[in-house]
Design goal:
Layout: H1 2-22, E1 27-32, E2 35-40, H2 41-97, H3 100-113, H4 117-130, H5 134-144, H6 151-164, H7 168-181, H8 186-198, H9 202-215, H10 220-240, H11 244-257, H12 262-274, H13 278-291, H14 295-303, H15 310-324, H16 329-341, H17 345-358, H18 362-375, H19 379-391, E3 397-400, E4 406-407, E5 423-426, H20 439-449
Helix pairs in contact: 2-3, 2-4, 3-4, 4-5, 5-6, 6-7, 7-8, 8-9, 9-10, 10-11, 11-12, 12-13, 13-14, 14-16, 15-16, 16-17, 16-18, 17-18, 18-19, 18-20
């Protein structure tokens, strides 16, 4: 619309000038080298216009000739760049498709057509990795470190290579360099945290965890549990170093962070007991027990019982926990076992039978077998209980969610696969191997079958 308006105005101006000249006719006379030239105003204006048009055309022609080499060069460069980017795109597609031969071919073509090493080096490194030549890929990644714009990409490539080779020390050194370049990059923080916990660098891991949670690389709830796990391990390190006050402080922080987390509660209670603060340790477990009963809490509570009272005192002690949660299968089992050790046969049978009704498990059936053997020397009944144990659900344990390995106590790292904070208290699946019958129960049965001595 705008162009049409401008064209209309130009035409109108020309017509206006032509009409104006036509209404005012006249002659023009000029002398050049003795010659007299006469013409009308209209012809003069036409000649002047033609002269100006010719000059403009000549100027444009001259400018085009001067600029022709540069224009041709730019056109050729544009064609090369277009071909280079096309080769680069095809190379990326070949990498995604898993075609190392095509990827290398397009990488060489892109390198020849494009004067942009950052892009072509990355493609060449990926093509080398795809073909299994990690050495060549490493050379490309190292070359990328020499350029500021590709240094971060080079570090990530070298980091991935180190992780594939399970060289965690080298991987952590690359992560540290990447963190200096881009300290708030989520994947850098998450990777640094993972490597630090695998190497048991708990203090550094705690700092990396805080940064990762802040950057959104780790969810806040997950971060709290991870922090509690780290605090427990730091507490163990402090205890091993003989720094009991620090060990207790770190354990208390873990308990405060996750009030219902049994490993943290057991940790703090054990340290309080070592400091002869038995009442405080008992109150800590009792408070946690009321919120979430756990077998390890009951066992830890029993360990706090006074030693001088013997087996009977241990029964009285664990009965305190039983009164808080009378129907909790965890305390019924521990109480039944304690009563069995004290030879309180009736109490043992009552608690173990109730535990078997609430939550049957192999442990309960084995204890019932031991009870039959010790109280009545009834070998048939004992073996019947052991037969039930073989078919009963397995006993809960700390199992790794990654590899399924069972652990006798909770630890932050799986002792088999090394994964961090993946142990959960649960019953093994049916696919898990079934342990042999309880050796202690069988020994009792065998001794009882020999008759009294």
């Amino acid at each position: 619309m705008r162009r049409s308006l401008i064209l209309f105005l130009k035409v109108a101006a020309v017509v206006t000038i032509a009409v104006w000249l036509a209404n005012r006719p006249g002659q023009v006379e000029f002398v050049w080298q003795g010659q007299v030239f006469e013409t009308s105003i209209g012809v003069l204006v036409l000649l002047v216009g033609l002269l100006m048009a010719g000059a403009a055309f000549g100027y444009r022609f001259w400018r085009g000739m001067v600029r022709a080499p540069g224009t041709i060069g730019r056109a050729r460069l544009g064609s090369r760049r277009e071909g280079g980017y096309r080769a680069l795109t095809n190379g990326m597609v070949a990498v995604a498709a898993g075609d190392p031969t095509a990827a290398r071919r397009y990488a060489k073509k892109a390198d020849a057509l494009l004067d942009e090493p950052p892009l072509t080096m990355l493609l060449s490194a990926q093509a080398a990795q795809l073909s299994g030549d990690e050495t060549a890929a490493g050379r490309y990644f190292e070359a990328m470190l020499e350029r500021e714009e590709t240094e971060f990409l080079g570090l990530r490539g070298l980091l991935n290579q180190a992780l594939k080779q399970d060289d965690r020390v080298k991987a952590l050194s690359f992560v540290d360099l990447a963190r200096k370049l881009r300290p708030n990059t989520p994947w850098v923080l998450a990777t640094a945290f993972e490597l630090e916990v695998r190497q048991r660098k708990w203090r550094e891991a705690q700092a990396s965890l805080a940064a990762a949670v802040k950057a959104g690389a780790i969810e806040a709830g997950e971060g709290r549990r991870h922090k509690a796990a780290i605090l427990i391990e730091r507490s163990r390190e402090a205890e091993a170093a003989g720094d009991m006050p620090t060990a207790l402080e770190l354990a208390h922080k873990a308990t405060s962070l996750l009030p219902g987390f049994a490993p943290a509660i057991n940790r703090e209670a054990a340290l309080l007991a070592r400091a002869d603060r038995l009442k405080q340790a008992a109150r800590l477990i009792e408070k946690a027990w009321e919120q979430a009963p756990h077998l390890t809490l009951a066992q830890a509570y029993l360990d706090l019982a006074p030693r001088e009272g013997g087996a009977l005192e241990r029964v009285k002690w664990i009965e305190k926990l039983h009164r808080l949660k009378p129907e909790a299968a965890e305390v019924l089992a521990v109480l039944g076992e304690a009563a069995l050790a004290a030879q309180l046969w009736g109490a043992a049978r009552t608690h173990l039978t109730r535990a078997e009704q609430v939550s049957p498990s192999r442990r309960i059936y084995r204890l019932l077998a031991e009870l039959e053997a010790k109280e009545h020397e009834d070998m048939v009944a004992a073996r019947n209980w052991l037969a039930k144990a073989e078919e009963a659900p397995d006993d809960p344990a700390w199992l790794c969610d990654r590899c399924g390995t069972a652990h006798p106590v909770w630890t932050a790292l799986c002792r088999h696969c090394g994964a961090f904070d993946v142990l959960t208290w649960r019953t093994p699946t049916a696919a898990a191997h079934l342990p042999a019958p309880d050796a202690r129960a069988l020994a009792v049965i065998d001794r009882s079958s020999e008759g009294p001595r």
